[in-house]
Structures are given as C-alpha cells and as structure tokens.
Amino acid sequence: MLLLLLLLLLLLLLLLLLLLLLRLLLLLLLLLLLLLLLLLLLPLLLLLLLLLLLLLLLLLVLLLLVLLLLLPPPPPPPPCLLLLLLLLLPLLLLLLPLLLLLLLLLPLLLLLLLLLLLLLTTTTSTTTTTTTTSTTTTTTTTTTTTTTITTTTTTTTTTTTTTTTTTTTTTPPPPPPPPPPFTVTKNVFTQWLLLQLITHIGGHACFTNSPCFYGILTTTVHVYLRHIFLGHLS
Q1: Fewest CB within a 10 Å sphere: which of 32, 143, 195, 208?
Q2: SS3 114
C-alpha cells in the first residue's frame, strides 16, 4: 500500500512538472511570436509613420498656401514671436514621430510586461547556501643578487691594399680574302683542247679512222660545253 501511494505521488509530481514545462514552453512560444510580429511590423510601422509625416507636411503646406492666397496679409508680428515660432517648429516636427512611435509601442510593451509577470509567478525560487573557507598562506622569499663587471679591450688594425690591373687587348689581324673562283680564259682552254687533239691523233694515228675522230670531236665539244655551263670559263 505504501509503495502504491509513493508511486502515485511520484506520478502526480511528474504530471505537475510536465504541466509547468508545458506552460513555460507556451509562454516562450508566445514571446517568440510577439518578437516575430514586432520584427515584421516594425518596417510597416516606420513606413506608416513616414507617410503620416508626409501627409502632415503636405497639409501644413496647403494651409499656408490657402492662408497666403485667400486671407489678407496680417499685421507684422513682433520679431520675438517670429523667432520663437521658428525655434518651435523644428522641435515639433521632431517630437511628432516620437510621440506616434510611443503610442504604437505602448500596447506591445504592456503585453510583454504581462508575459514577464506570468513567467515570474510560475517559476519557483530555490535558495542555495554556499560556505566559503578561506585559507591564508605565508611565503617568504629570499633573493640574492651578484653583479660581475667585465672589461674587454679590443684593438683593431686596418690594412688597405691597392691593386692596379692593366688589360691589353690585341686585335687579331683580319682574315685573308677568299680565293677567287676557279676561272679559265677561253683562249687557254681552246689551246689545251687543241693539244689534246694533236696528242691523240699523233699517238693513235686515227685521223683516217672516222669513228675515232668523231668520238674525239664529240668528247671535246661536250667538255667545252660542260665547262661553260659550270661557269669555269670567264
């Protein structure tokens, strides 16, 4: 029986905890939704404020035009009043959007305050006691300092050496001109050919032999023409 009662109590406690957690989650969701709405509505609100300001300025301009055109010119006011009006007009223009913003944000602020109050009422406060023990430690330190002075003497000797270099450049002699191409005069060549004919005829006695004689003639003409073609004759 006791065990059953304990189990029932535990179940009840768990249910209560779950309910509290659900409440907290719901409140957090509401807060997130409100923040999202604020973030989404802020640009719209700013646009509306700008539009309202523009409308107010247009209305003021229209009123001034109507007053200037329809009404007779009023008597000139004293300079002090003019200065005050000039000073107050920009202040009023600056304060108007701030007032509109405050009026728009007041309900949202009230909702946030209510949600915070609900959260504070649902949360349980837990008190924790902490004990602190302080320990004091004393440390003594002894420092010994030793100073050593060292003197060093350095002698520096500088030697300067001068070197003179003489460079002699010898230009090689120009190369000899290339030899002229092999050229033979026509007279010398014809004399050589005649000598060849005489020696051939005298040695073989083939003057009466017509094939041999014609062979010598054809070979000499062929050699002559070949030398002309190769450019050996000048």
Answers
A1: 143
A2: helix
In total, the chain counts a number of residues equal to 234
Largest CA-CA distance found in the chain, in angstroms, rounded: 169
In angstroms, the CA 214 to CA 218 distance is 6
What span, in angstroms and rounded, lies between the C-alpha atoms of 174 and 163? 34
Amino acid at 208: T
What is the token pair recorded at 207?
């003057």
200 and 216 Cβ atoms separated by less than 8 Å: yes
Choice among 94-98, 131-135, 175-179 with the minimum mean pLDDT: 131-135
- Cα–Cα distances in angstroms (integers) from residue 225 to residues 170, 201, 228, in the given order: 51, 22, 5
Question: Domain of 113?
Answer: 11-118
Which residues touch 181 (CB under 8 Å, ≥6 apart)?
A: 231
* Nearest-angstrom CA–CA distance, 57 and 60: 5
In sequence order, the 6+-apart residues with CB closer than 8 A to the CB of 118 are: 27
Which tens digits make up the pLDDT trace of 96-108?
A: 778 777 777 877 7
Indicate the residue among 95, 118, 141 that finishes a domain.
118
Token digits of residue 218:
């054809």
